[in-house]
Amino acid sequence: IKLGPLKDTHLDRILKDHLNAKDIPEDVLELINSKSHGNPLFAKELASTLLSRGHLTVVDGVCIKQTDLRRIDVPDSLVSLITSKIDRLSPNQQIVCFNFLTHSHSQPYIFIVKI
Q: What is the pTM of this model?
């Protein structure tokens, strides 16, 4: 089955569900949609990264920008995003991650998303 990119409206709904937010600022949606090119995994991971780094918060179902997103480095690809997550791990965690990915033949992307 070949799947194409999701439309912005579908991606917006996925992001609202993922962040548990009924409202997300339009410029946040535009940024995530433009970077992810309709890839829901990349969009969700990018939103989670912005949240975990404190650039976004969700209060009472409303997503709030804490940072001017034009001034931060936002990964341009899923590979860049995953690499940036691995780079923030401790050296021991990086070794575990590397060993798992090089010796496992089952679902390495699920492991990475859990980082």
A: 0.76
